[in-house]
Amino acid sequence: MKKFFTFILLISLVAITSANHAAASQTWWGYYLATENRTATGYNAKATVSQAIFIPGNTGAAQGKTIKGVRLYMRSFAAISGLKVWISRSLPSAADKADYVQTMNMVDMNNGDERSESLGKQNDITLDKPYVIPAEGVYVGYTFTVRSTNADYGKHPTCVADGDVEGGFFMAKGSTWTDYSKKGKGHLALQVQLDGEFYNNALSPHDFGTQIVAKGGSVKVPIRVTNDGTATVKDFDYTVAIDGTTSAEKHVSLAQELANINESTTGTIELQAADRAMSQQVQVTITKVNGQPNESGHATATGKLNTLGESFERNVLVEEFTTEKCPNCPSMATMMKNTLNRYPQQAARVALVCHHSGFYTDQFTTSADNAFTWFYNNAGATYAPALMFDRYPYTEADNTGLKTPVLFASNSSEIIAYINNRLNTPAYLDLDAEAAFNADSTSVTVWVTAKRAQGYEVTPRLAVVLTENDIASTSQAGYSGTFYHAHVMRDINSTWGVDVDNWTDNQATYSYTFDLKNNWNRSNLQVVAYIGNYDSTDASNCVVENSVAVNPAAYTPASGDIDGDGTVNVSDATALVNKVLGEADYSNLKCDINGDGTVNVSDVTALISNILSKGN
Predict the structure, then answer these.
(1) Residue-by-residue DSSP string for 471-501
(2) Domains in the chain and their CATH numbers?
């Protein structure tokens, strides 16, 4: 009987242990998942080409594991030769300079394209000598020589998947390496076979930066989480520690389950503001995964919570993706127009910009329009019509599970609901703008004044856009007759905006001049300025904090009557000096005495000269 109970006890202990730790085993690890579609890229040149990923050695499932194999995808061998697989602690100047290199017999390998959405064919390569991942991590890659660029598989021989992932794609032409993991090129279709002991329920959160919240409120924070175990992750529990005080556990169910090791998605956590303006250090710890204790060695992420004592009224930036080749886009434009006409109070606080991209391109497409397709899901699948509201990440992208600010609204009720949601969200930055044509209407100068709430520490980006309304289409799909485009982006100061770092007493100024093309209708031009965050690695972390739309004023030479009392004298010079010093807030149109688009000491000099010449 004692032997029987001893046997039952041992079985129970084995069951408990297996619930927490997987036995020593092998698994394929990578930024690329077998379920993803594959496209291709390359240099379109005859050259020696290398491509690689970086495997961190001190975090995640790869920590302390041994690489026993490499899985890569190859297009036609008719264009390449000399394939070598390698592993190196640094990116090598040549394959033979790597710490480990293995020359491949290409005769025995698969090559070609499976189908149009899955380029290349899979090859599982067993290493002649297993490689233990060091604490500092390693690069794993392969090198070949492109001999012909007559066909697409020679121009673009490297197989990739959509979506930027940090460490997910490095490429070199010759010995010159470029980190493409943050350049909208996707991630390399490559995996490694890891050998070792893997956890079952293990999930690691990523640091989440600085979060802003109004006093007494709360903020929902999208936090990136990565599956470090072999079990499919459906949900997790977490605690929040702020300045050493730990909250009770809270629960999150994932919209996208994580079925693969090293697969990532975004969950939403909630942080509570302080009762007064202050900055606090925050630690978020994932305590449970699928109801089981979290086994990850990296269960805690850090960030900062800035509680602000003031906020501003928000305007909403609405961006629409559209093209003349999109048959459903005219109906979206009409629905947007009707919605704003129906809700005039909200419409007065909406700034609209249309990007001609997302579904092919047309004659109105700018380079910035194309760049903004990154918002769909870090350059994944695109479509039109599509909308963004303050670039807030409301949805998850179909292909990657990443949060994306791009969405589709099927009716006016959905549109106004998104607008109202943003209008009711406090803003911690404020914008005011003026714009005016020059004397011969060949340019428009814009002056922007930004204000920030006390304690707002993030350096925001400011973008200034010039749009045009009522442009007749040439061949709009899905519309009979002549369709007129509205809010077409004609120009922008900088695709991703410029840093605003010239704050004085929580106020900053900026000016920009647009040169106008002859075929732009001056009467239909509008300026839109918006300010907010920009994170080149995360399309969900680029939320617009505020915006403003203004129509350019007709050119009127500055009279010099700065204080508006009807005369031009020394008091106006004093007022202008105070404006230049940031101690007074007068109209830029009035203060730009010399008409150069900026307000500075040269305008003071011009005004004084003007006063002296008139004897005032």
Answers:
(1) EEPSS-TT-SS--EE-SEEEEES-TT-EE--
(2) 24-198 (2.60.120), 199-308 (2.60.40.10), 316-550 (2.60.40.10), 570-614 (no CATH)
